[in-house]
Request: fold
Amino acid sequence: MSEIKRCVFCAVSVAELPGSIPYEDADVFALMDLHPVTPGHLMIIPRRHISSLADLPPELGQKLFSVGQQAAAALRASTLRCDGINLWLSDGEAAFQEVPHVHLHVIPRFEGDQFSIQANHQHATRADLERTSELVRVAFARLGHRSE
Ligand SMILES: [Zn+2]
Reply:
């Protein structure tokens, strides 16, 4: 059995599994999250099985974000409670990616919605920031992306 056969998003994409889909086109579809953080929580999912952000072609990434933006507008225009939006993409298990098929969460937010992110923000000195900035700058350049 291939990985694609086991992928729940691929199965929903071809209607082998049921899903509530408020939007779809040839490239991506929106799927209501089975365990919503708030009512209206959905995901924008490419139809092609792409497991990680690194493998996502830039044009498809643009499409993913563009439809995510439209979904955010639709949620705000709907009768669902939505005073704010989080766009959330988890890449890798360490970042809580649960389904190994790239997806962008679109989460309606409102005061008192019980959604929280626990983080221990650290203090960074300017020297710390310059050092980490240099590490990232070098990696950008190694990947062929230089500042203009
Ligand atoms: Zn898949």
